[in-house]
Design brief:
The protein is 35% helix and 28% strand. It is an alpha/beta fold. The protein has 3 domains: 148 residues, ATPase, nucleotide binding domain (Nucleotidyltransferase, domain 5), CATH 3.30.420.40; 64 residues, Dna Ligase, domain 1 (2-Layer Sandwich); 111 residues, Nucleotidyltransferase, domain 5 (2-Layer Sandwich). The strands form 4 sheets. It has a 6-stranded mixed beta sheet, with helices on both faces. A hairpin with a 6-residue loop joins strand 8 and strand 9. The longest helix is centred in the C-terminal third of the chain and has 27 residues.
């Protein structure tokens, strides 16, 4: 199962990262415009350390249990879900087939020519296709996007969803889901950005992915080995803290007004000099990493400028990080919040939703498959 298909049920978008399960359910409240979505349910549940390593699932039981916990915490009644496979684990090819073929005939044609496009035996892969549109080279051909991934990449994701009592509806590609979330965010920020060149830096625990969009389509992606764990590891080392206390201390430092939030079980106060000794240098290093990634983009493409940068991921929640990176890069930078113009259910903790919003982009992109 590797599906570009559309949903037929209420759908949970579930992002399985190396540190947490991020879950979103959206419904439509009106027209297609950016402001016509409702956040029906959400959850952000930490994963046990080592359950996901280098985007590979190493503890299926722990992941399944955490997904179940996230579903229960969210209060959602949905039983169908969309997840994603990382882009490096997926082979994509744009191929052409004769116009007028049915889906079954296109599938048969792909199966026949599979060895030309996929370097693995067919029994070792899951694949799917989507018709892109008429071919630019011939009127009697159509362009088809073919996606294929090793079967274990898909099977592991199906297994953890089923362990949580969910039905896998869609297995997407992370870059496609991120593209949808970024397009939504651009419409929310400023409609004029939709046709411009915009970058999104997704700062994960161990890596930062730079996605560059032009006209709402991702045209370039680069991943660098730099992430939020470097900040947390330094806090642990400098102040002799456990990983849990380092994360909690950083969260409370960034959200001092939420000290009594139910999700924060105890108070961890970092020293006053943590900003200058640890957080400031991390922000500078992140700005340098993003600048370096952009230089690679400029040298590898015909684009000469970026009109805006959107910061995503957990590290984007660090207070003031957008201002510092704006100064270093010389163009506008904002922190992602895909829920900006959405209606939020009355049962949802809006303060907590806002706090985790920068890290929910991929989950939102997956959830959009259920309403678009």
């Amino acid at each position: 199962m590797f599906s570009f298909g559309r949903k037929k049920h209420a759908l949970l978008g579930i992002d399985i990262s190396s540190t947490a399960i991020k879950l979103v359910e959206l419904t439509r409240t009106g027209s297609y415009s950016a402001g016509q979505y409702r956040v029906q349910a959400f959850a952000h549940e930490p994963l046990p350390a080592g359950a996901v390593v280098d985007k590979k699932f190493t503890d299926l039981e722990a992941i399944g249990n955490t997904i179940l916990k996230a579903v229960r915490r969210s209060g959602s009644k949905a039983k169908h879900a969309a997840v994603a496979v990382s882009a490096p684990a997926v082979i994509t090819r744009n191929i052409t087939v004769p116009a007028g073929l049915s889906d079954a005939e296109i599938e048969a044609q792909i199966q026949l020519d599979a060895d030309q496009h996929i370097p693995y035996p067919l029994e070792e892969v899951n694949m799917d296709f989507a018709i892109v549109g008429p071919s630019a080279t011939a009127n009697d051909l159509v362009e088809v996007l073919l996606a294929a991934s090793r079967r274990e990449n898909v099977d592991d994701r199906v297994a953890v969803l089923e362990a949580a009592g969910l039905t896998p509806e869609i297995v997407d590609i992370e870059t496609h889901a991120m593209e949808g979330a970024c397009a939504l965010q651009l419409r929310q920020i400023d409609d004029s950005l939709a046709a411009k060149t915009v970058a999104a830096a997704d700062v994960g625990a161990t890596a930062t992915s730079l996605h560059v969009l032009h006209d709402q389509k991702i045209v370039y992606t680069r991943e660098q080995n730099f992430g939020g764990n470097q900040l947390l590891n330094e806090i642990q080392r400098r102040y002799d803290m456990s990983p849990e206390d380092a994360l909690l201390g950083l969260a409370q430092l960034n959200n001092s007004s939420e000290q009594n939030a139910p999700s924060l079980q105890k108070t961890i106060k970092l020293p006053e000099n943590a900003h200058t000794e640890i957080i400031g240098p991390f922000q500078e290093a992140l700005a340098q990493q993003i600048s370096r990634a952009l230089q690679f983009f400029y040298s590898a493409s015909s684009y000469g400028r970026i009109d805006k940068l959107i910061l995503c991921g957990g590290a984007a929640s660090i207070a003031g990080i957008d201002g510092l990176i704006t100064q270093r890069l010389g163009f506008p930078v904002s922190v992602a919040n895909p829920f900006t113009e959405m209606v939020v259910g009355t049962h949802i903790d809006e303060t907590r939703l806002k706090r985790v919003a920068p890290s929910m982009m991929l989950a939102v992109g997956l959830a959009l498959r259920g309403v678009d």
